[in-house]
Amino acid sequence: MTTAPPEQSPPAEVGPGGAGGQGGPQAAAGQAFLPVFVRNLWSANTVTVSVLAIVLAMLFGGVLILVSDEEVLAAFGYFFAAPSAALTESWRAVSEAFTNLFKGAILDPEQIGALAQGSGSWERVLQPISETLTYAAPLIFTGLAVALAFRGGLFNIGAQGQALLGAIGAGVLGFALGLPPVLHMLVALLGAALAGAAWGFVPGILKARTGAHEVITTIMLNYTAALFLAWLIVQRGIQDPNRTDAISKPVHRSSYLLDLPGPSLRANLGIVLAVLACAAIAWLLNRSTFGFELRAMGSNPDAARTAGMGVARTYVLVMGISGALAGLGGATVVLGTEHTLTPQVIGQIGFNGILVALLGRARPWGVLLGGLLFGALQAGGNRMQSYAQISVELVTVLQAMIVLFIAAPAFVKTIFQLRAARAARLETSVAKGW
Amino acid sequence: MSTAVADLTTTAAEAHRYWTRNRITGAVLVVAGLAAAVVFGALATDRDARFTLSEDAAGVALSVNGTVGAVIFGLIAAGAGGALFATAARRWYTLLLGLAIGAVVVSSLCWQVSSAPGDLNYMPLVDVARGTFNAALPLIFGALGGVLCERSGVINVAIEGQLLMGAFAGALVGTLAASAVAGLLAAAVAGLLISAVLAVFAIRYLVDQVVLGIVLNLFAVGLTGFLYERLMQQDAARYNEPVGFGVWRIPVLSEIPVIGPVLFEAHLFLYLALAAVVVIHIGLFHTRWGLRTRSVGEHPVAADTLGVRVRGTRYRNVLLGGVVAGIGGAFYTLFLVSQFTKNMVGGKGFIALAAMIFGRWSPTGALLAALFFGFADKLATYLGAIASPIPSQFLNMLPYLATILAVAGLVGRVRAPAADGKPYVQG
Amino acid sequence: MANDSITLTVEPGEIHALLGENGAGKSTLMNVLYGLLQPDEGEIVVDGETVRFKSPRDAIAAGIGMVHQHFMLVPVFTVAENVMLGAEQVRGGPLGFLDRRRARQRVIEVSRRYGLEVDPDSVVEDLPVGVQQRVEIVKALSREIDLLILDEPTAVLTPHETDELLEVMRGLKAAGKSIVFITHKLREVKAVADRITVIRRGRCVRTTTPDTSEEELAALMVGRAVRLDVQKTPAQPGEPVLSVRGLVVHDERGQRAVDGVDLEVRAGEVLGIAGVQGNGQTELVEAIMGLRPVRAGSVVLGGETVTNRRTRDILRAGVGYIPEDRSADGLVADFTVAENLVLDTYDRPPYGSKLVLDSDAIEAGARDMIARFDVRTSSPNAPVATLSGGNQQKVIVARELARPLKLLVAAQPTRGVDVGSIEFIHQQIVAERDRGTAVLLVSSELDEVLGIADRIAVMCGGRILATVPADTPREEIGLLMAGISVDEEAVP
Fold first, then answer.
1. CA distance B160 to B217
2. Bridge partners of C458?
3. Residue spans per domain, chain A
4. Residue A41 CB: number of other CB atoms within 10 A?
5. What percent of chain C has pLDDT over 70?
6. CB within 8 Å of A100: residues ≥ 6 apart
7. Do B305 and C72 touch (CB under 8 A)?
8. B425 vs B183: which has the higher pLDDT
9. Which among B320, B183, B284 is positioned nearest to B242, based on CA atoms?
10. Which residue in the set B9, B291, B294 is minimally distant from C88, CB to CB?
């Protein structure tokens, strides 16, 4: 297709939103509210697509459960002889899985009943939510890290490595220093943020100075960081002197994140900090001059440069802040729950942060919701594994599928035959190359 | 590559004119070479460093005195660096750089081998070479799969997932059908299936391809892990004891020192890999298919106007790439380990990605890069065995750091196919 | 609707010119003819047979070839590879091994037959633009076509290369080929065309012959008497504001795009830089604005040397900049109109500070600018992408002119803009000049330069050949644009 000089286009339709759909509110004024609402609901708008994506992923998850359940497979073996048996087995398998998912993530109604009868405790009622919040907090941090970079036009896949550096920073400061309680925690968090920021600066500077694509450099740095951690843990001075396996000294109590009373309630200050970070990033993006520059650069770096913005400098700063956020995510794990360093200490929070950022469409409050969803899935998945013997790997599959469908709204639209939305702005970031 | 945003001032631009790339690298290499000669020479002992032409301590060996060897090879590296500094020609860059790096490595080996405890002061070259190839094999397949994909313009970060799915399918079908060949075919199909998802969502639904790759990797890890726990862990004999491939020995040729045992007494995957490199190389650069593929990856609009089917070509190439990568995954379960374990690829897919980039998106480049990275991997294991002071983790970082240097333009310019990652929308 | 019931007939062995302004629908029509677009109604008849082109392949099979305005060449391939792509010479049956020898021979054969010298083994990205175009033509001709479509081929050529191309066209016609020649340049049309079809706003206005006068053709193209002169009073130039001395700037390939340029713009005057696009004007402007490094020479603004200073500092020093490509460099498509209106002033009072934005001030300022510069938009918070091209350009003009300026640099300020907005923008530029601002205008539309400028510098091959007064005859300027300097009238 030739790219001729911009042709003269007719003046645009004047009206809100304007993606020519079924007529705006003016047209609907004469009609009843409910039909219009339902019609707009079943169109490819952001909320509907997100919900349906989750539904679709759950369906697929259900199929997986069925396909790998011995009893279900056996029941289907004699399907024609006793069809109802196959169906009841299927229903049993799937519902057991998903109810446990819910109970592990939100609430177990039995516990409320137990509480009312006096045999339970508040702790057990609140535990599922506590687990969800515990898992959500680091994901919100890494999600914010990736989301912020996205808005600036950068793809920060390095959240995993930056979180690792943050964990290292927090851990080392946690057991190397001896400071009074709150101060120690703050110092460790600061150290984590700085370490993560440093690991984010490197790809930022490389991109600014040499044009090296940040996707490649950050992926490479992820694995470099993991190897560094593996080496560091077994060094003298870091390794726990009482252990021979790869585990560091435990951090001092004074650096722990404040947490809820009750031994089985693991939710801690991390979630509060994560929410505060969301608010801070939202403010940064929308009300600060740096956020203006970041958004301009993310949308059109050439125009930003032409308008005098220092694009290279902004790249570096964005990657630095992004790294700091991811570092805080790693610190939340170390100072909040694990209290020590192991090679697997932060799990996959960096990679999952990418998914969370996509789920939240790179908007801070979207990231918060996405992080809570993923945290819930993780918490529920644990219970699903213990009670229904369904591998927690299913959660990974569900998470991947949810994000896949959200990233391809056209796919969901086709499957569910949704109408085109009035103001559909569904694309995640514009597909870019190396 | 994305457009660089280098804010150069005039002074920096002028300063660059003396310190060209050749000069900077040359100077660094001279310093490194001299440092190697001095440091490794000092650290080395007077014992011999023996490089045996066999799998163990026995047999003919190239012996060199530890100190002497360290110093000489350090000086060779410095010499190469000096030569690079002196010359302005760009084509010597890679050769001299490679020579210098090789010499530094040998210099350090002279030190380490000669200082090995007890009578471990030997390096079994056949074992090292074979280990290098084995370590490189999944990288070769993965990188080739990536090359096929990306040369037609679709970014493939999902190599890790493709390898994993191939490994899983190979193990599963290899056990169920009690046949290695069936397992291999299943691995190819598994790779094909996952790359089909990549193709459809990237080409038809225009999803960002890097995102897609990451999601597919996680999906593959989760899916194979889930099925492993549900099926294989419950009943290994039924699902996870595949019949593997054996080693084939080619007479006469396998008698050649070093090369013989490594290349001519090897398994199917080695031959498949080398054949694939040759076939894909010829295909890409000497056939109509290759010309059209490359045109679609560089300038799809132009190709379209000349009647080349852009989307069809991309679909075909992505699927083909999946097949190749899937076969690479089978290497793990149908030869190396003969059973599937969770997440067994362990990040090698990303090293394969690095090999593809480092090898400049060409099949032979991918082969050489994979061998280089495989060597680093094997060397790390070997040095661990002789209790070397160099931590293995740092050697394992080598592929990643090398790729960073490559994309930062410090090891030659690395240019992806121009339309890589940009979905093609007609009209 | 891009094409509205257009009927076009081309005879064998004729050069048929398709004349129209930017955006009239010529390219759309040709894309349909070449199979790149599907018509909603109507039909194509080739040699008496009705055909349907589902893709360029079908068009090529029917004997139609096209050379696009933006070349369809794979930069990293050689000439021979580009020519054979899609119709490769192969041997070895189904395996399809490329027969490079035969491919090279074909290139040499075609290029010799039609007088288009190209080297089959050179890599396309290393070739100059004129040679690349030749490669495109060779590519089309090598496919046994009877009809060749040329889409604005002379847009990137020097006048000398243009003459060569017209000669080639005559040669092709003598060999029995038909040519459809899309352009908006009247002189070329009159030089080679056998018949001329004028298209305006998607409709065929008239098909006529070359003995129609230029004035009449221009009127047909534009639809009313073209008002090429902007009403303005004579300039009252003051002190020099911008001085450029011996400027040398490189292009992306490291070659000298600006090869030692001297110029001076005084307060209260408009210096227009005329010249065919691609002679260094883009690089010159970017270097002045700090967007491209200066290799030698100096740029002095109001007595202060600003060579290679950051763009931000140059803008702050009182320079306004209208970039030549508004969608790539001038506007952020995802931002609102208001945000775009403060794109280079957001971090200073009243719109913001180094840390925070003042959104109320931004909105108020935006409303003011929208009113003053007649920007048609539903609200300051509408996305700027919903505006028409002309209104988008007015946003940029508003942004730059709303602050006090010493110098305004305007590059192609009315490209792709509707006629009404063109007039408005021209008036604003002249008004700015009357306020005492120095204006540097760069335009490839000679009429625009002749209309607004007080002095004209003609740029060719990276140099300023001469600087002449605005009432210099058109032909003289045309010669200068072709690189022919008649006498040294260097007016600094």
1. 6
2. C274, C466
3. 137-362
4. 12
5. 91
6. A380, A383, A384, A387, A388, A390
7. yes
8. B183
9. B183
10. B291
What are the strands of the beta sheet with C203-208, ordered from one edge? C64-67, C147-151, C178-183, C15-19, C195-200, C203-208
pLDDT in tens, B271-296: 999 999 999 999 999 999 999 999 99
Q: Of C137, C165, C216, C191, which Cα lies nearest the Cα of C17?
A: C191
What is the number of helices (H) and of strands (E) in chain B? Answer: 19, 5
Q: For residues A35 and A211, what is the distance between their CA atoms, to the nearest angstrom?
A: 53
Closest chain C residue to A307, measured at CA: C344
Confidence of residue A268 (pLDDT cuts 50, 70, 90): confident
For residue A63, what are the contacts with CB-CB under 8 A and spacing of at least 6?
Answer: none
- pLDDT (0 to 100) of residue C215: 65
pLDDT at C92: 76
Q: CA distances (Å), B307 to each of A415, B351, B422, C30, C88, in order?
A: 32, 36, 19, 16, 12
Find out whether C173 and C179 touch, Cβ atoms under 8 Å: yes
pLDDT at C491 (0 to 100): 31
CB contacts, 8 Å: A208 with chain B: 5-7
- pLDDT > 90 fraction of chain A, expressed in percent and rounded: 39
Taking only the tens place, the pLDDT of each residue in B399-424 is 888 888 888 876 656 778 888 888 88
Q: DSSP letter for A108, please.
A: -
pLDDT the model gives residue A78? 73
Name all domains of chain C by residue range, CATH numbers in brackets: 15-222 (3.40.50.300), 240-490 (3.40.50.300)
d(CA B200, CA B311): 10
Q: Are B169 and B189 in contact (CB under 8 A)?
A: yes
Lookup: tokens for A199: 């690991």
ipTM > 0.85 (yes/no): no
The shortest CB-CB distance from C97 to any of B9, B286, B305 is to: B286
Amino acid at C417: V
Q: Average the pLDDT over B112-120 and give the result.
A: 81
The pLDDT assigned to C384 comes to 93
User: How far is the CA of C261 from the CAs of C244, C279, C302, in angstroms?
Assistant: 7, 12, 18
Report the alpha-carbon distance of residue C133 to residue C309 in Å, rounded.
Answer: 37
Task: Go through chain B and tell me how many residues it has.
Answer: 427
Q: Are C151 and C181 in contact (CB under 8 A)?
A: no
Query: pTM here?
Result: 0.83
CB contact under 8 A, A8 and C389: yes
How many CB atoms within 10 Å of residue A363? Answer: 18
Q: What is the pLDDT of residue C183?
A: 79
pLDDT, averaged across chain B: 86
| pLDDT at position A15 | 33
Q: Give the number of other Cβ atoms within 10 Å of residue B50's Cβ.
A: 18
CA distances from A39 to A53, A317, A405, C480 (A): 19, 44, 22, 65
A286-289's contacts with Cβ under 8 Å and 24+ in sequence apart are A287/C356, A287/C357, A287/C359, A288/C355, A288/C356, A288/C357, A289/C346, A289/C347, A289/C352, A289/C353, A289/C354, A289/C355, A289/C356, A289/C357
How many other CB atoms sit within 10 Å of the CB of residue C372?
12
CA distance B351 to chain A (A): 8
Of the candidates B4, B411, B303, the one whose C-alpha atom is nearest the C-alpha of residue C76 is B303
pLDDT reported for residue A173: 93
Q: Has residue B323 got a pLDDT over 90?
A: yes
Of B287, B299, B307, the CB nearest to C96: B287
In this structure, which amino acid lies at residue A189?
L
Determine the average pLDDT of the residues in B290-315: 91
Secondary structure percentages of chain A, helix, strand, coil, to 5? 70, 0, 30
Residue A14: per-residue pLDDT: 33
Distance CA(C319)–CA(C401), nearest Å, equals 10
Does position C291 have pLDDT exceeding 80, yes or no?
A: yes
To the nearest whole Å, the CA of C37 is away from the closest chain B CA by 7
